[in-house]
What we know:
With 222 residues, the chain is α+β, with helices and mostly antiparallel strands. It has helices at residues 22-36, 81-87, 128-135, and strands at 2-10, 67-77, 108-117, 119-126, 152-159, 167-168, 171-172, 176-177, 192-197, 210-215.
Amino acid sequence: xxxxxxxxxxxxxxxxxxxxxxxxxxxxxxxxxxxxxxxxxxxxxxxxxxxxxxxxxxxxxxxxxxxxxxxxxxxxxxxxxxxxxxxxxxxxxxxxxxxxxxxxxxxxxxxxxxxxxxxxxxxxxxxxxxxxxxxxxxxxxxxxxxxxxxxxxxxxxxxxxxxxxxxxxxxxxxxxxxxxxxxxxxxxxxxxxxxxxxxxxxxxxxxxxxxxxxxxxxxxxx
Length: 222
């Protein structure tokens, strides 16, 4: 296992969450398994290429980035039944075409906060060969990639001396359990807060949530 700093340079605005990036590496790993036909459907399987802490989390930091500006974007999605009839005048429209509240033709409005960010940095302790291979397939970072958000321009991976994925320069870099031994190494304790969240991927699984400690200050540990 090697201590790594990963810098992801972006060339478009992004919609970024602040969960630790083991979720990103897990998605890339599962995508590789699916392509090879070896994925068993277990989204909670252990990521053996990342250091796993006895406290129940992976040694991967949350993303670190500086926001240059924020744009609030609203996207309206609505099926145009008139255009459908104009394009296919002889086709029989499906019954669901008139139901705009649910189903395949549902209309909805999505409000997004897009961030103008030059680069995203994270720290990880893991197998450098596997991580380099997985990140080589990363084309977009964050949500709504189908709309062009978070396009990746370049990824720089370098070895560093110390493991900075949990605590870096006295700053907590990711969520940890409320009784974690790592909190003894944190110097900015006034910037710590608690919330309910998962300790590792998949972060969307609400059944795995517990009390965790997070850094709510402005320091990022770089």
